[in-house]
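BUG: 3D viewer hangs when loading the predicted structure for this chain

Environment: internal workstation, default settings.
Expected: structure renders.
Actual: progress bar stalls at 90%.

Input used:
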Amino acid sequence: MKRPLVGQSAGDFDYTTDQSARIARRMAHGVYRITHAGQEVGEEAWTLLALLNGGYRVMTEIDLQWPTRNEQRVQLDVDDRWNILGLWAQIDISGVRRVAAYIPSGNRLNVELTDLAISDEDQRSGKWRLRSDVNALNPIPPRLSASPIMAPRKKVVQHQLIFEPGTHIDFASAMFNYVVLKRLGLTPGTAAPFSSVVVTLPSLEPLNIRQTYRYDADEPPGPDITQAPLRRYIITETGSPDMLTTFWCDQRDIVQKQELMLNGALHGCEIVSYRWQQ
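Structure tokens produced before the viewer hung:
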């Protein structure tokens, strides 16, 4: 059994970028604008990294104003076939930081949730940033790491779930679609169902669902005839027929735009800028 390089618990959260000794190279990074009901409500900065063990790491930082002011940081490690090795997530909301670890072990998924009080120093220092100048030829990688917090820890949840091969761990980030597409390898007009463990917000509790990804069609290019068509995908969930997500990707499977109905309003994101460096 392969073990995640960063450990087996929430305490091993390795929120670092290019400075980590586990990183082989940076593949891409970018920024999404997040909207709800036509209003901008947040921003997501992400980085895609290749690991020295042949796998990959997706890191994202989300700053949201809706429905409640919060900040999220997520790290997803996968192997060279895009199978899940582990997910670590944090959400800061109302002065509390909840830390979650989702670590597969055989046919089980170890889940650990911990609450921590955010220190005064952490609140004064502001956000941890993945921001990079995507237009720069050689952007300076940010030096990010999880700030030590000396406040008492409160273990919230520690349990195991059944975790079959091929199960995805999903988070509310368009970059998680990239991982699914790489694993499924869909062609136009085809679809694939699979089991998924959704990390719910703001609790970070797990929710088991069945998802289906369908490669719907290639959108024709716009007025700029030199632009390559975007690939349109549709996500449906078993038991939730109204929960339908549509997203459009470029030729590298990077999501350019995503839309779904959430609380009766259109919720989505669109790429502001990104740079592919591989």
